[in-house]
Amino acid sequence: xxxxxxxxxxxxxxxxxxxxxxxxxxxxxxxxxxxxxxxxxxxxxxxxxxxxxxxxxxxxxxxxxxxxxxxxxxxxxxxxxxxxxxxxxxxxxxxxxxxxxxxxxxxxxxxxxxxxxxxxxxxxxxxxxxxxxxxxxxxxxxxxxxxxxxxxxxxxxxxxxxxxxxxxxxxxxxxxxxxxxxxxxxxxxxxxxxxxxxxxxxxxxxxxxxxxxxxxxxxxxxxxxxxxxxxxxxxxxxxxxxxxxxxxxxxxxxxxxxxxxxxxxxxxxxxxxxxxxxxxxxxxxxxxxxxxxxxxxxxxxxxxxxxxxxxxxxxxxxxxxxxxxxxxxxxxxxxxxxxxxxxxxxxxxxxxx
Length: 353
Description:
The chain is mainly beta. The chain has a domain at 1-91: Leucine-rich repeat, LRR (right-handed beta-alpha superhelix), CATH 3.80.10. The chain has helices at 106-111, 130-133, 160-169, 320-325, and strands spanning 23-25, 46-48, 70-72, 93-100, 115-122, 144-150, 178-182, 203-207, 226-230, 237-238, 257-261, 268-269, 282-286, 305-309, 331-335. The longest helix is centred in the middle third of the chain and has 10 residues, at 160-169. The mean pLDDT is 86.
């Protein structure tokens, strides 16, 4: 194991005399590329490359590692998914896979059945229609627990319904725990994002989906703990639809952290008034210049951190009762909120740190 060593480069002939090596850990090193001689390690079974921030490419003849069973490339931000990894016939576990569409096709993703941990699918603007998206066979990948979907570039979609259909076919298996969607070009989201059958989904991030004018019914995700909504330029209102329809449980009944950021057109946040956000601990509203908010639509009693920054129209009036209701508040951060009319500094909660 060479994990965590300050290694930048390995000698090209390093592995020629190590042909019996079965385990190699280069995780958390500063290595930029692997020497070609690694391809002579015919007995290598495990190769760990996670958190190699500077690793950009793998050797072209990786398929010669005929006994490689476990490959971990998680959190290798610069590494592009090589075409030949699908030729590793003995590979049983591939962790942290990253598929860059354009150089790879949806069929290539569909043919890989040994994906574990995180999966990133990038450059989704290159997918033409839902018939192409279905070839990824996303619902069959039951060992993926973190899914990152990203559209790049500033080009707008020709057909919003086509974009929605593509995202609909990228629905993950019900075992998913984390979903992050960046740059989606449709005007609304498919229904699966708010499906209560996602019993393991705890973290959801929607970022720079600038054409969307409404949010899914995320309140009905039963075990969602962390929600981040950022750069949604088309959102003008957060309506009752956001909370979903519940028969017995309160909307967002498990949510602990909620973040809204960079929402230039957001003006209204509708309050449902049915005990939503019962255990919310952290609320952040940042850079939402048009949001007019006089009451906070959450349970203040559980709140530990409340942050409102660069949102000049937010005029929340904290009266004595509200502050007294903040029984667990530890952090209260308010800045650049010019519409704030009063704040009773004399009775600040003693829990503040």
